[in-house]
Every structure is written in C-alpha cells, then in structure tokens.
Design brief:
- The protein is mainly β and 106 residues long.
- The protein is 0% helix and 46% strand.
- The protein has no helices and nine strands.
- The chain has a five-stranded antiparallel β-sheet with strand order 2-3-9-5-6, with no helix packed on it. The protein has a four-stranded antiparallel β-sheet with strand order 1-4-8-7, with no helix packed on it.
- The protein is globular, with a radius of gyration of 15 Å.
- The two termini are 20 Å apart.
- The N terminus is likely disordered.
C-alpha cells in the first residue's frame, strides 16, 4: 500500500487574483480526465492515468505545479515507452478515442 502525504500551505495573497484556488494538475481540453495519480511501482516517479471521454482523437496538455524532468508514455504495467517532450511544467500528448493513457513522470 502506498500513501502520498498532501500538505496544504497558506500564503499571504498580494491581490484578489492570487486568491484563485490552484490544483497540482491541470488538463486540457475537458474531454480528457485524470483517473489516477500514484507513486510508480519500480522507481521514484509518479504515474498518471488519463481517460478520453467523448470518443474523439484529442491533442491534450497537462500542466503540473512543478517543473517536469522527464515524462514517458507507458503501458498499464508502467513499462516506459515513448519519451514525451516537456516544456517547463507541462507536457502535450495525443490520446485516441476512449483511450486510457498512462504517463510516467519524473
């Protein structure tokens, strides 16, 4: 069994704009949803599973709360495959209709 400690941090807001809630992951567009996030079984990475809801091929983008080092597409057994290009805190990828996409993030 894995557990991930999630800590809430409060900081002084400098303006009303900074009062907007933030999440650790943002996914675009809305037909791609996060179905799981967990520690990787074989290394120190994080596994993210996504699902395409509307039955259409989609170019998606996922943005994180921190800078990404490396991201790979992987199978459901978390075996790395294609390495994806990252841009600071985000990664873009294609997802097929109704596909479950598994990414390994380091």
């Amino acid at each position: 069994t894995h557990s991930i400690a999630i800590r809430s941090m409060r900081r002084q807001a400098r303006s009303d704009a900074e009062q907007i809630p933030r999440s650790c992951v943002q996914i675009e567009p809305s037909n791609v949803v996060l179905s799981a996030i967990k520690p990787a079984e074989e290394n120190n990475g994080t596994v993210v599973r996504l699902f395409e809801l509307e039955g259409r091929p989609t170019r998606s983008r996922m943005r994180f709360w921190k800078k990404l080092s490396q991201v790979w597409e992987c199978d459901l057994l978390e075996q790395p495959g294609k390495r994806l290009k990252t841009s600071k805190d985000s990664v873009a990828f294609a997802i097929r209709p109704y596909e479950i996409k598994t990414l390994l993030i380091e």
